[in-house]
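thought: fold this chain, then report.
action: predict
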Amino acid sequence: MDGGNCKFHMGHRIRKLDNMLKRNMQLALSRQGVDEVTAMNGFIIQYLHHHADQIIYQRDIEREFRIGRSAVTNILTRMEENGFIHRETDGSDARLKRLTLTDKGEEQSQLLHDTIEWLNRRQLEGISAEEQEHFFAILEKIEGNAGRLAARILGEDDSWTREIRPK
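observation:
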């Protein structure tokens, strides 16, 4: 493997695929007359829909999607302005805002679900069930490695820096 070849740089390929998947989602939704839903809004709407029986706060969104507080605040503010979600103060702690879908958010949830399922089927065409299982197992391992690596980088021990540029 050529270390300088982008074909073998996992982050580059995943970013490129992520951009393609988001674009397909945006195009599919736009062609159905939905312009104001970004990909992240869609994921959050789906998450809130699937967890409607639970109390969900902003920190749950931060944790689930691994996004920083200020970014989530901006996303949720726009979603509330667009009428997809409602934020209400939690009775036990005024700093906490419970997130719920509005009727408009629920309507979008069904369209998003149907569109996501259609896109998923089409984007996995020609890939056997065994290949899909293998692919998702590898993704799970990469996610685990990435999580452990983040903890190591954020930790007190900076010995990892010597692995990048040995003396």
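thought: worth noting. Residues 6-125 form a domain with the Arc Repressor Mutant, subunit A fold (CATH 1.10.10.10).
final: tokens above.
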